[in-house]
Design goal:
472 residues, mainly alpha, single chain, 1% strand, 22 helices
Length: 472
């Protein structure tokens, strides 16, 4: 990091943290007590603070990583600073843990952008800092910085694990992956993703050697026709059934293999991935979740995905391959018809934005969900097109993880899209400075509207005197 870039990064991090502290104070003044899921998380953390580690709220569905870490931070701080009484493990103190995580996430996002794009010498330090600031203010994640939720910590340990994986420190990566798993069980998918990075790198090396042997210049490890993809899949199967190759890959990924094995033991003993209230979090094949994620990504990455150039290229591709897109359309319609699920929480809780998205868009008419298919196809094409700089094996591995983390979820919840979005956004090429500034301005606008609604546009339910607030 050059001196000017170091100063710029320090200034951006300090400015972002100062702004977050001011917002934290505003949120804490307006909403002093636990809100939404905090009514489960806060009492559980406070029970741990008082040494009652066997006490457990059956409504909590995640493992106790957040509570254990909170106690490990707050109790020593209270001892050093002489805090006593109700201030220790208070709502505000527990929420502040996530403010610290947000600063850590800022730093990790910068390091990841630097590592992933280090070969691109055209990217300036200012662009890296600007992109880091933008991702750190990603609205769905940034909002939960100010509440006692698992998301900031979950993102922190997953990004840290990914960074260690990229630097080849796989034992540390797996250990951090375990910490991420303790915050949210589905983060085990990103442990598989880290192992998949290692496998994809080895596959890409072997594929290049295969091409050199055959002197076949028509096939690329990055993009190609359908027949090229068939040959790549054939190569993939042949490579992975080789005992020698499996031993090599196992030697490289054994820390991840151990962690994933422990996960399956946990699932077997626990009777499922969810702890606590299993009835409201049953796994299913909810394939339209992929379409919702693609729409979510287009909305938050429109400077990357929704450009005139992208639209023209998509229309040309549509004209060139009408049969392929017709088949994709039929499959998409079938998946929506047979695999659309509506969770009871989605219809019942009018505090979440998803409630209004569903009511104003999908419930407007029965045919709306089918009429959106052309947009889903464009979103999927544009999404994949921005990843063309990655190897085909990396793309296949990422899409497998994306499906694994979204499709089994019955509930449409934007928080579930945070990590797959960030992993995607970290790995796509940098935009021009103008488009980067546009993206940042859009995030600031969305955050401003979100916090205005949360702090000022309160309401009450007919059967309750409690103040309700709008949120992600």
């Amino acid at each position: 990091m050059e001196r000017a870039e170091a100063y710029g990064f320090s200034g951006a991090l300090s400015g972002a943290f100062l702004l977050s502290c001011l917002l934290f104070a505003a949120v804490s003044r307006r909403q002093r007590g636990p809100y939404m899921d905090e009514v489960f998380h806060v009492p559980q953390a406070q029970a741990y603070c008082h040494g009652r580690f066997l006490q457990w709220d059956p409504m909590i569905t995640t493992l106790p990583g957040l509570y254990l870490l909170s106690v490990g931070v707050v109790k020593p701080a209270a001892w050093l600073l002489g805090w006593t009484g109700s201030v220790v493990c208070s709502v505000g103190m527990l929420r502040f843990i996530n403010l610290l995580f947000s600063a850590g996430n800022f730093y990790l996002l910068y390091l990841l952008l630097f590592k992933i794009h280090q070969k691109n010498k055209a990217v300036s330090g200012f662009q890296r800092i600007l992109s880091t600031l933008t991702l750190a203010m990603f609205p769905t994640l940034y909002f939960f910085t100010f509440l006692y939720y698992t998301d900031p910590g979950s993102v922190f340990f997953t990004l840290f694990s990914y960074l260690m994986c990229l630097y080849g420190n796989h034992k540390t990566s797996a250990l951090l992956g375990f910490c991420g798993f303790m915050f949210r069980q589905t983060n085990i998918v990103w442990t598989v993703f880290c192992a998949g990075n290692v496998v994809a790198e080895k596959l890409n090396e072997a594929w290049k050697i295969e091409l050199q042997k055959k002197k076949d210049e028509k096939i690329s490890s990055q993009k190609g026709s359908f027949s090229d993809l068939t040959r790549i899949l054939q190569f993939l199967v042949e490579y992975l059934i080789s005992p020698k190759n499996l031993v090599t890959l196992s030697a490289l990924t054994w820390p991840y293999i151990i962690l994933v094995s422990l996960f399956f033991v946990f699932v077997f003993i626990n009777g499922g991935i969810v702890v606590g209230d299993k009835s409201s979090h049953e796994a299913c094949l909810h394939f339209p979740q992929l379409f919702y994620f693609l729409s979510f990504t287009v909305f938050f990455s429109f400077p990357h995905l929704l450009t005139p150039t992208k639209i023209r290229k998509f229309l040309l591709s549509l004209q060139k391959h009408p049969v392929r897109y017709s088949l994709i359309t039929v499959i998409s319609l079938f998946l929506i018809w047979k695999f659309t699920y509506v969770h009871k929480y989605l219809l019942a809780d009018n505090r979440h934005y998803t409630f209004y998205v569903w009511r104003k868009v999908f419930q407007r008419h029965e045919l709306v969900k089918y009429l959106l298919v052309p947009f889903y196809i464009f979103a999927g094409w544009s999404f994949a097109d921005t990843l063309k700089s990655k190897s085909i094996f990396w793309i296949l591995m990422y899409f497998v993880c994306l499906l694994a983390v979204t499709v089994p979820q019955k509930l449409l919840e934007f928080r579930y899209f945070i990590l797959p979005f960030l992993i995607y956004r970290l790995n796509i090429p940098f935009l021009s400075l103008y488009r980067q500034l546009l993206e940042l301005a859009f995030y600031i606008l969305v955050n401003a509207v979100t916090f205005y609604l949360f702090l000022n546009r309160t309401f009450k339910w007919e059967n309750s005197d409690e103040v309700q607030r709008f949120m992600w």
